[in-house]
Amino acid sequence: MANVENPEAEGMEASDASFVDGDDGDDSSPSKKGSLAELLKDPSMLAAIQAKIRSRDQIQAHTEYMRSLPRPVKRRIKALKKLQLESTNIEAKFFMELHNLEIKYQALYKDQYDMRSKIVNAEHEPNDEECKWSLDNEEEELSNELKDKVNVGDTKDDVKGVPEFWFKVLKNVSLLDEMIHEQDEPVLKHLTDIKYEVTNDPAGFKLEFFFSPNDYFTNSVLTKTYELKCEPEEDDPFSFEGPEIIRCRGCPIDWKKGKNVTVRVVKKKQKHKGHGGVRMVTKTIPTDSFFNFFDPPEVKDDESDEDQQQILSADFEFRGSVLGLYRRIMRVQKTWQSKDPEESKDDKAFILAEARRLFKQNKSLKDRGDIIASIKEGEARLELAIHYQNPHPRPVNLPPHSLATGWTKMKAEERKRRLGKPVYVKSLDEVS
């Protein structure tokens, strides 16, 4: 499991490995001293070390306190723990019933969502009765002269459906807009629908992104599936806070030749070691893209439990709660034309502050190799934005603080201290 008491320590340990591996064990080694000095200059590294020391002190103080209690008090505390465990088991049943309730109501939403898709994609033209909207009084307030001007200017009768509806929905959310890169836009204009399905065996949910035929890939639908666990851990039952994502699976994207927007081609000059000649070498390197969302880290069957948890933690801690994606979009799509901002300035500042911390932590964890290499800055920004703007209370209780699984257990002062000063961050390189 992730380090609940001190998640920053994981980043510290991963960074430690970058200068320990391959060392001959001589602490006086100049390279080791230099690497250590560089690490200690990193504010996030210092914070992680300090947090680890504080955590050890707290554990020691707690242990000493428990030892000092009279035997009758210790006995009563055991009774309280037993009651708490019973309450936790009841809470787990509650969340499972809530999950089953979502499955029940999923069927009730189906007709409305199907009709919306038909209207957006020009498969159904709504009649006068379907177009009645009681809150729209604009037409009644217009003068006849203004009505005529509006009608004269409205000559695009050949427009079908609602063009680029879902693309505009995604772009209307400021932080999703930042995540969408220039090369993604023409692809996302082919997005025709987004669906969310709750599953029961195993418990989880699935996101489906539907696309019209396009010049970029042959897939008609891209999926992301998540598996949930809704029961306390036997060895740590009091850490249970609701359903948690234990596994995720993306899907392969069948890119057409030269159309893969998740990579870019770089040409470099390479000098031959023998005769000194120069040649041009072409390399394909990964790049930030919305579509990296569908390529999460894979957990192999031969991975140890600890390795599996590290991979999942690296993915989920940076991605945040993906369950909020569909619901967030559902809320935004209702108001994107009104230009009514849904995020308050305080909310936005809070999200940006968390994004800043996220990218700083990502910097210190870059030596985790393939695990971190698969987690793109844009994905982190997307999932962070989704998590903090999720209008539903705890549908899946991932940590409110993307990098700290112990966030809910921190005091308000500690949370405030960790947030830091909110700033706009466009790229990882801007974070120092």
How would you portray this structure in words?
The protein has 432 residues and is α+β, with helices and mostly antiparallel strands. It contains 16 helices and six strands. A hairpin with a 2-residue loop joins strand 1 and strand 2 (203-211). The longest helix is centred in the N-terminal third of the chain and has 50 residues, at 71-120. The chain is flat. The two termini are 29 Å apart. Mean pLDDT is 66; it is low at 1-34, 316-348, 363-408 and 418-432.
List the helices and strands and how they pair.
Elements: H1 8-20, H2 30-41, H3 43-68, H4 71-120, H5 128-131, H6 138-141, H7 144-153, H8 165-172, H9 174-179, H10 185-188, E1 191-200, E2 203-211, E3 221-229, E4 244-249, E5 263-271, E6 278-286, H11 305-319, H12 324-333, H13 345-364, H14 370-373, H15 377-388, H16 412-419
Antiparallel strand pairs: 1-2, 2-3, 3-4, 5-6
CATH class of the domain at 69-130 and 160-259 and 292-430: Alpha Beta
In CATH, the topology of the domain at 69-130 and 160-259 and 292-430 is named Arylsulfatase, C-terminal domain
Strand coverage percent: 5-15%
Mean pLDDT: 66
Shape: flat
Spatial order of the strands forming the largest sheet: 1-2-3-4
CATH architecture label name of the domain at 69-130 and 160-259 and 292-430? 2-Layer Sandwich
> Which homologous superfamily in CATH is the superfamily of the domain at 69-130 and 160-259 and 292-430?
Nucleosome assembly protein
- The biggest beta sheet, please? 4 strands, antiparallel
Instruction: Enumerate the spans where pLDDT stays under 50 for 5 or more consecutive residues.
Output: 1-34, 316-348, 363-408, 418-432
Q: Count the DSSP helices.
A: 16
Order of helices and strands: HHHHHHHHHHEEEEEEHHHHHH
The structural class is alpha+beta
How far apart lie the N and C ends?
29 Å
User: Nearest-angstrom radius of gyration?
Assistant: 26 Å
Protein name: Complex 1 LYR protein domain-containing protein
GO biological process, one term: nucleosome assembly
Region (Disordered): 1-37
Organism: Notodromas monacha
